[in-house]
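WP5 quarterly update. Target: tRNA(Ile)-lysidine synthase. Source organism: Amylolactobacillus amylophilus DSM 20533 = JCM 1125. Length: 458 aa.
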Amino acid sequence: MDKISNSIKKILKEQQLAFSNQTVILAVSAGPDSMSLLAGFYQLSRQYDMKLIVAHVDHQLRPDSAAEYRLLREYCVARDITVLNKQWPIAEHPPKGLEASAREFRYSFFTELMRKYNASFIATAHHADDLLENILMKLIRSGDLREMTSPRAVVRQQERIVVRPLMGFSKKELLDYCQVNRIPFIVDETNQRDFTMRNRVRHHLVPLLKGENSQILQNALFMQEQVAQLDGLASSLVKRIPQPELLGKWHRGLFVGPRDALSDLETAQQALVYEKLIARYLQKSVKVDAKRLARLAKIDGGQVLELKQQVKLVVTRQHYFLVDAAQLELLLQTLPKHIAVDKQFVVGGDVFVVTKNKAALPNHILLGTFYAGETKTFGIRQVQPGDKVRLSDGAHQLVKKRFAPQGIPASVRNYFWGLTDEETRDYLWIDCAYTNQVIPKNSCHYAIYQVLKNSKEK
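Structure tokens (predicted):
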């Protein structure tokens, strides 16, 4: 085996990725980087009985894209390698964000193949020049150090594992490898034009930096390693503090945690912890500005920090709240107008049922109980700021006064919904806040449950 295949083997073993007698998805474009990856894995496959699935995406962005696939197919057919091609329909090309959309389309295809063939991982041909370009682009766009660690050698996600075993090589080394070993490739002509930021960085900034220091690529890899270590320390810190919980028993996209868990941290460290918690619980990557957080912390009450992707960070004296406003608003749009007793209903993908059955039900989580007159149906609606509830003496009270003792700030109360009397429209039950206090004669005791997805109850 040569230096490419040996390097791939070394990284796979270091990362404890199974490859002997395994199926592997290779993301290949027919450029010199991709063809080096394919050639290296082909050598490994002959020794370790690997099944290679070569995945090629025709983005239909340039005239020679079809020629790439022809070259790739000829190479693979001659070596009995399975090669699959998928076109990105021109009608799906967005007017803006073309690069990000193309990446999403590619990885969706690769992930689909990984599931279909039960592959061990997906391999791509990213190299050290890609990392340096990414660092420079992130420096220009945001200056966020944590964004400068990609592409990483291995990324483990719930739906896929992506390995980039050529990160230790420069673009020139891979080009030389193809030329010396007579491996065919096609150079993407669009990479020679300065119409994208990446190309401008590649053609003008990178050569200048390499001229100043020939070790710039090694420095970029060293920086990536250091930032990854610091990021790991931050993740360890987050795991040691008390974790936030769903607000109520069912709210997806709304978490609450104790603010004093972060009291010993500096504001910049708190901002980092909040970012980690948001990524972990809301599955969104956003930046929390430490200066804005510091100003917010000086104000009493439930102060809101509006972040990107419709994420909100709400801080009160005792708690912090992680809010995915987009998810919660979509959830509330699914509220039915009425629900029937003993019949399941759905809110935002979660299943619920109201019943007079007091026995513990398998695969059901009890959310609460309330008294109401004999009925077959209840109303259901989103809680509004001016809404009122009835007290035991018949008087009415603003619903906000029911939320306040629970420490739930005004900025998140409108994400709750409640059950109502069909005739009077009075609230009978609101999660975390209220249970009917007016008990009529001959009333019934009802329970509301969340039905777990593996339940077969109808």
